[in-house]
């Protein structure tokens, strides 16, 4: 007896199921886009009064005077970018060192406890970090500042009142907070590097350091993504930074001068806004932070794409080399 051949009905049913799956997952992806657009629209709508009054000068004005009705976001933009970049400079070597040690050098009996402690740091609430910063970090920064030579404290980078709260304290606490995020992602990226990369390096006579460097080069795209994830985390941090930065709307190069961030001014002054213009200016600061976050994430994505494209190009070139040699 001949085996029945599946008819077109079964093929049509499979196509309908595949189409329904595509549409269902596409709806969830579109929903995320709608959320981002809705956030931008609402922030723009609520800040229209400030947008009409100050225009683009809001971005470059240093005066923040709620009593006089004069508002400028430059001190908060400066404080946000300055503290986040300093935190990134401090945390990146530490995060990469943790990731390399756990994935490449750590004994097996210590690996799981270190992974647990690293992930535990990421779970600590920011308010707890802020309390730790007030009782431990601020006195330490004050001690460091007062121990500097008087000639060094005259320089713009190290000038400021010896109170401990300021840009350096904020950058240090941000660095501690973003290390777990960057190191965890970098560790997982290094774990995904094929063993053939390390074995090939050892076969060519490389030392252990050189083999690890080869693995880092292979995983450079993911490592950059891990670093940028930490940078995005630093841009939006609120409570811990607000507690140690000094909350002073001032543009200063000094590491010890009290300053402020966009997230910090929103957290500390939003409930104090007693006029429509004041409230609109605060919402516009939220809009500025939203735009800066989008710009940073877009630039990081372009960087990752360019690095991934370069890696693909080098692989293709490497694959063509034997043929050229043979020719």
Question: Can you describe what's shown?
Answer:
By secondary structure, this protein is mainly alpha-helical. The chain has a single domain, classed as MetI-like (MetI-like fold, Orthogonal Bundle). Helix content is 77%, strand content 0%. It has 14 helices and no strands. The longest helix is centred in the C-terminal third of the chain and has 51 residues, at 276-326.
Put the structure in a nutshell.
It is built from 14 helices and no strands. The chain is mostly helical and 327 residues long.
Write the layout of secondary structure elements.
Elements: H1 8-46, H2 48-54, H3 57-60, H4 74-105, H5 108-123, H6 126-147, H7 150-153, H8 167-191, H9 195-203, H10 208-218, H11 220-235, H12 239-245, H13 262-269, H14 276-326
Helix pairs in contact: 1-14, 2-14, 4-8, 4-11, 4-13, 5-8, 6-8, 6-12, 8-11, 8-12, 9-10, 11-14, 13-14
Tag the structure with descriptive keywords.
327 residues; mainly alpha; MetI-like fold; 14 helices; 77% helix; disordered C terminus
CATH fold annotation = MetI-like fold
Strand composition percent: under 5%
The total domain count is 1
Shape, per Cα inertia axes: flat
Strand elements, count: 0
Question: Helical stretch count?
Answer: 14
Fourth-tier CATH superfamily name: MetI-like
Straight-line N-to-C gap: 58 Å
């Amino acid at each position: 007896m001949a085996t029945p051949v599946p008819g077109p009905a079964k093929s049509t049913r499979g196509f309908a199921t595949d189409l329904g799956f595509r549409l269902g997952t596409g709806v969830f992806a579109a929903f995320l886009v709608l959320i981002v657009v809705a956030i931008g629209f609402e922030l723009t709508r609520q800040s229209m009064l400030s947008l009409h009054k100050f225009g683009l000068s809001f971005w470059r004005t240093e005066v923040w005077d709620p009593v006089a009705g004069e508002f400028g976001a430059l001190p908060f933009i400066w404080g946000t970018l300055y503290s986040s970049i300093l935190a990134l400079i401090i945390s990146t070597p530490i995060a990469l060192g943790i990731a390399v040690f756990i994935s490449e050098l750590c004994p097996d009996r210590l690996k799981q406890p270190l992974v647990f402690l690293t992930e535990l740091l990421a779970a600590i609430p920011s308010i707890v970090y802020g309390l730790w910063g007030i009782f431990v970090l601020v006195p330490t920064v004050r001690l460091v500042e007062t121990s500097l030579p008087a000639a060094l404290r005259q320089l713009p980078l190290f000038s400021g009142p010896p109170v401990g709260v300021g840009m350096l304290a904020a950058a240090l606490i941000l660095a501690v907070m973003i290390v777990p995020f960057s190191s965890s992602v970098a560790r997982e990226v290094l774990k995904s590097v094929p063993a053939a990369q390390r074995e090939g390096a050892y076969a060519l006579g490389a030392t252990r350091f050189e083999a690890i460097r080869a693995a880092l080069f292979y995983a450079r795209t993911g490592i950059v993504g891990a670093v940028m994830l930490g940078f995005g985390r630093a841009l939006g941090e609120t409570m811990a930074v607000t507690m140690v930065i000094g909350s002073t709307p001032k543009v200063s190069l000094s590491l010890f001068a009290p300053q402020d961030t966009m997230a910090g001014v929103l957290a500390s002054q939003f409930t104090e806004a007693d006029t429509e213009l004041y409230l609109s200016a605060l919402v516009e600061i939220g809009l500025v932070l939203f735009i800066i976050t989008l710009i940073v994430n877009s630039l990081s994505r372009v960087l990752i794409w360019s690095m991934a494209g370069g890696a693909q190009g080098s692989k293709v070139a490497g694959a063509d080399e034997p043929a050229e040699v043979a020719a």
